[in-house]
Structure formats: structure tokens, C-alpha cells
């Protein structure tokens, strides 16, 4: 028993399960207690359950699908842009451009949306491009760091095997780090998923989870808000799990 | 033991390498010739020893063409022309390079890596397959051929890295501290690898660095000590060759390690400590 309170102590599988179970029970009890009485911060489990039912009847799955589709489109475009910039950053003349794009992550979203609104009129396209601009800066930052962490020995090894510079780029950086790209997407996914909901709630015309949360917020429907938060968290974690699974399944050598 | 010196295999003249203002090695010159012995194929084994930071790795990167010398030249035998004693300047890829970590392509299995090493060779796919299979059998890697580097033991990685270079680079191979961090079994594996390489072709030349002077004396037939030279009573801050021990001349090469070798070890250690 003392072991579970000692730093760096190794514990058995059963103990670990017991600890997790205890925490889950603790959270559940806290939820029940804090949702009792007249004035409470969290909605009761019944309210949340009702929230789920209402959302389902209002087409929750369609909205989840809409958000996922938006996310997929934005990720595909953003990763294409970021990968192109990152791979080309190995060429000295392109390097400053890549670094500058990475620094643009400090730009506020409002500034970006202002200029995009001037160029794009369609709400859905606008949502995609706000996300693309936002994601590209973060993805480029992580991908540049991925390239710079490749050890000199790997480049030397390829060169000693008579690879010209383009082959070195292809073999070591592009092919050799394919699994890292998936990991970069996975690690940036949380922030992208969070942004997606924000973007959808700013531009409500095209629906999605962000639209639902904005609506629930407006009518102070606490049960629905928590139900939606749970859905958003669950969908986000599922994408995270799927990406990790894909990386391990397709790249046996990947031990990140 | 009788031997003869034939064609020049490696010619280094006034080599210096500087990174910006910092001169790392300077005035490095040496010549290594093809050694022949009757009744056996004898490749060359050259050891480079010296204290840390004296420029061994820089010399190796220059010898393999991975960095351009600031001054001087490095010539190797040009066997492709068919003309005897023909030489060419070294370029990246001419000389095999195996680093201390035995770096491999992380996304290629042993078989894929060796196939990649043979990509420029003018063989049919079947001939390439047969060559690889032969090497895998000889070097005890047949069972691991479909494994990735992260799934290999240290010894398997070493052997793969060495075969890769044999298949791709021809007669020259530079190994940066191949014995570093190895257990006694792996050290024996590398020794076996050395004798396998040198028994394959007269021109095969292994150049390696080590901090283990006993191993240098035991395996090499030519030993170079790199250190800071003393000029006008002052120690310079660049590396150069401060001592050369020709084990062939001393009749200690290709011989069982004994008392006479220990004397050489002492000599080399003394040279290292003063440079």
C-alpha cells in the first residue's frame, strides 16, 4: 500500500487498474455531489443524459461527420503545404521562408480571419482555410524540428552509400521519417481539434460540433454543453488512437 | 614474414581541414601501398590512434570525401580504368564509412539495405539477390534478413553496416572507433570481419580509429598517431601525424600478439601523452 505513494516506485498491473478505478469513482462521486442541491456548477448526470438524447435527435452524428470532414480536409491541405515547405527547407535558399512561416504561429486568429474573409465568401471554404493557415504554422514548426533532430550520422551514412543530395533528402528525410509525420499530426491534433470547434462556432453557417456548442451556450443548456464536451473529447481521442494505431501498423520500425 | 610493396593505394599530401578560423588538422601526409605476400591475399589494415579532440574523426570525414579538404589532396587507386597505378581524387561514396553507432537506414530491413547498397552495380536482380544471400550466409545474418535496425543486436548492426559498405564502396573502408562500447564477443566479431574483408581482395584497405592501443597494435600493419605537434617548444592547437609505426617493417604484422607488441604499445602511449 505504501508503495503507491512512493515516487518512482514500480507497481503491478492490478494495482494500476485499482488506482485508475479509484480515480474514476472519485470523479463520479464528485460529479454527483457537486450537481446536487439548488445551486450547482455542474449539471446532474440526468441532465447530461437528457442532453445526449436531445443532441442525438437533432442530428449529432451529422454534425460530428461534418466536423470530421472539415478536419480531414484542413489536415490534408495543411500537411501538404507544411511537408512541402519542410522538405524544401533543406535547400539553403528556402530555409528562411520555412522559418518565417513557423514564426507566423504567433499571429492572432482574428487577423487571419479578417484577411481571409476579404478573399473568401463561402463559409465552409473560409472554415477550411482558417484552419489550414493556423495548422500549417504549427505543423511546419514541428516538422522543421523533426528534420533538425536527424543526426549527422544518418546523412553521412546515405552519402557514403553514393546517394546524391536529392537521394539523401528522399531516403533519410522523406522516406526515413514518414512515421514521424504521422506522429507530428497526432501531436498537433489536440490543438487543431480545439481550433476546429472554435472556428465552427465563429462561422456557424456550416454546422458541426462548434455550431452545436455555440447554440447550447446561448440557451445556457448545461446538460447539453457537458454532453457535447464529452462527445468532442471522445472523437478527438479516437482520432488520436487511430493515428497511433496506423503508425504502428504501417511502420514496424517506428519506435517513437 | 616476407612481403612486397606494390601499387600506391592511398596518397595523402599536406592535408588540412579548417572549420572557419579553427584549423582542426594540418600538414597531414602519408602513403599506403598495396602489400602482397606469397600464398595469401593480404589487404591493408591501418589504425589511427590519438587522444580525443585531435582530429581523428575530421581526418576520417576527409578521407571518405564527406568534407572537402581546406588544402592538400587525397588520392586513391582508380581501379576502374584498368591502368596500373592510376589514381583519382576521393569523392563521397568512393570510400566506405562506418561510424561509431553503426548507422543504418531505419526504414530498411537488412535485405532492403543491402539491395540499396547494390543499386548502382551492373548486375541483374537475381545476381544481386545471390550476392546478398552469399554475404548473409557468410556473415551469419540469414535469419535476420527481414529485420529492421531497431530489431537487431549490436553485433548484427555492425555486420550489416560493414557489408553495406563492402557492396557499395569497393576496396576502401573507414571505421570510426568500431570497438567502442563493445563487449568481448562483439570485439571478436569485428576482428573476424576485418580478416574477412582483407582476405577478399589485395586492394581491400581498412582504416580504423580506436582508443584501445592494444587492439591497434594487434590488428594493424600500419599505425598512425594523431596529436598536437610541438613546434619551437610550443604545443600547436591542431592535429597532425606525430608518429608512424610500420608493423611490417618491424616484422610484427600478421603475427600472434606477444611481448614485442607490448613494447610498441608503450611507444605509442608515450607519443600520445606528449601530443
UniProtKB/TrEMBL annotation, chain B:
<keyword id="KW-0813">Transport</keyword>
<keyword id="KW-0067">ATP-binding</keyword>
<dbReference type="InterPro" id="IPR050093">
    <property type="entry name" value="ABC_SmlMolc_Importer"/>
</dbReference>
<dbReference type="InterPro" id="IPR003439">
    <property type="entry name" value="ABC_transporter-like_ATP-bd"/>
</dbReference>
<protein>
    <recommendedName>
        <fullName>ABC transporter domain-containing protein</fullName>
    </recommendedName>
</protein>
<keyword id="KW-0547">Nucleotide-binding</keyword>
<feature type="domain" description="ABC transporter">
    <location>
        <begin position="10"/>
        <end position="253"/>
    </location>
</feature>
<dbReference type="GO" id="GO:0016887">
    <property type="term" value="F:ATP hydrolysis activity"/>
</dbReference>
<dbReference type="InterPro" id="IPR003593">
    <property type="entry name" value="AAA+_ATPase"/>
</dbReference>
<dbReference type="GO" id="GO:0005524">
    <property type="term" value="F:ATP binding"/>
</dbReference>
<dbReference type="Pfam" id="PF00005">
    <property type="entry name" value="ABC_tran"/>
</dbReference>
<dbReference type="InterPro" id="IPR027417">
    <property type="entry name" value="P-loop_NTPase"/>
</dbReference>
Amino acid at each position: 500500500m505504501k508503495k503507491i505513494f512512493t515516487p518512482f516506485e514500480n507497481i503491478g498491473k492490478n494495482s494500476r487498474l485499482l488506482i485508475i478505478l479509484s480515480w474514476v469513482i472519485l470523479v463520479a462521486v464528485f460529479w454527483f455531489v457537486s450537481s446536487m442541491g439548488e445551486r450547482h456548477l455542474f449539471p446532474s448526470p440526468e441532465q447530461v443524459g437528457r442532453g445526449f438524447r436531445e443532441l442525438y435527435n437533432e442530428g449529432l452524428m451529422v454534425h460530428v461527420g461534418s466536423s470530421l470532414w472539415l478536419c480531414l480536409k484542413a489536415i490534408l491541405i495543411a500537411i501538404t503545404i507544411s511537408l512541402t515547405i519542410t522538405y524544401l527547407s533543406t535547400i539553403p535558399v528556402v530555409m528562411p521562408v520555412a522559418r518565417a512561416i513557423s514564426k507566423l504561429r504567433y499571429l492572432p486568429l482574428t487577423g487571419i480571419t479578417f484577411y481571409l474573409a476579404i478573399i473568401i465568401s463561402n463559409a465552409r471554404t473560409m472554415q477550411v482555410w482558417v484552419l489550414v493557415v493556423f495548422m500549417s504554422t504549427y505543423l511546419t514548426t514541428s516538422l522543421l524540428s523533426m528534420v533538425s533532430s536527424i543526426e549527422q550520422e544518418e546523412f553521412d551514412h546515405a552519402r557514403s552509400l553514393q546517394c546524391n543530395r536529392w537521394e539523401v533528402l528522399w531516403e533519410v528525410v522523406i522516406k526515413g521519417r514518414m512515421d514521424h509525420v504521422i506522429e507530428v499530426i497526432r501531436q498537433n491534433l489536440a490543438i487543431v481539434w480545439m481550433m476546429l470547434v472554435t472556428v465552427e462556432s465563429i462561422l456557424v453557417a456550416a454546422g458541426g460540433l462548434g455550431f452545436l456548442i455555440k447554440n447550447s451556450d446561448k440557451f445556457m443548456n448545461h446538460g447539453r454543453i457537458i454532453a457535447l464536451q464529452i462527445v468532442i473529447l471522445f472523437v478527438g481521442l479516437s482520432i488520436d488512437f487511430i493515428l497511433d494505431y496506423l503508425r504502428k501498423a504501417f511502420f514496424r520500425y517506428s519506435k517513437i | 614474414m616476407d612481403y612486397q610493396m606494390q601499387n600506391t593505394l592511398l596518397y595523402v599530401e599536406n592535408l588540412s581541414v579548417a572549420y572557419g578560423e579553427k584549423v582542426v588538422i594540418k600538414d597531414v601526409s602519408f602513403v599506403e601501398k598495396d602489400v602482397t605476400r606469397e600464398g595469401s591475399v593480404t589487404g591493408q589494415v591501418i589504425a589511427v590512434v590519438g587522444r580525443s579532440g585531435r582530429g581523428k574523426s575530421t581526418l576520417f570525414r576527409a578521407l571518405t570525401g564527406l568534407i572537402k579538404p581546406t588544402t592538400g589532396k587525397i588520392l586513391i587507386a582508380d581501379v576502374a580504368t584498368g591502368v596500373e597505378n592510376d589514381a583519382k581524387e576521393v569523392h563521397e561514396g568512393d570510400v566506405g564509412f562506418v561510424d561509431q553507432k553503426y548507422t543504418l537506414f531505419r526504414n530498411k530491413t537488412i535485405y532492403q539495405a543491402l539491395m540499396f547498397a547494390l543499386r548502382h552495380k551492373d548486375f541483374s536482380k537475381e545476381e544481386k539477390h545471390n550476392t546478398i544471400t552469399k554475404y548473409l550466409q557468410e556473415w551469419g545474418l540469414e535469419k535476420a534478413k527481414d529485420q529492421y535496425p531497431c530489431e537487431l543486436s549490436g553485433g548484427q548492426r555492425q555486420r550489416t553496416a560493414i557489408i553495406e559498405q563492402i557492396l557499395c564502396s569497393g576496396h576502401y573502408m573507414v571505421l570510426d572507433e568500431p570497438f567502442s562500447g563493445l563487449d568481448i564477443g562483439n570485439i571478436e566479431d569485428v576482428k573476424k570481419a576485418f580478416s574477412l574483408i582483407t582476405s577478399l581482395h589485395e586492394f581491400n584497405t581498412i582504416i580504423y580509429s580506436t582508443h584501445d592501443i592494444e587492439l591497434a597494435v594487434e590488428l594493424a600493419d600500419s599505425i598512425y598517431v594523431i596529436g598536437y605537434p610541438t613546434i619551437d617548444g610550443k604545443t600547436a592547437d591542431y592535429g597532425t601525424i606525430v608518429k608512424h609505426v610500420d608493423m611490417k617493417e618491424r616484422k610484427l604484422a600478421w603475427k600472434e600478439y606477444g611481448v614485442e607488441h607490448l613494447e610498441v604499445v608503450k611507444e605509442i602511449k608515450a607519443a600520445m601523452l606528449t601530443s
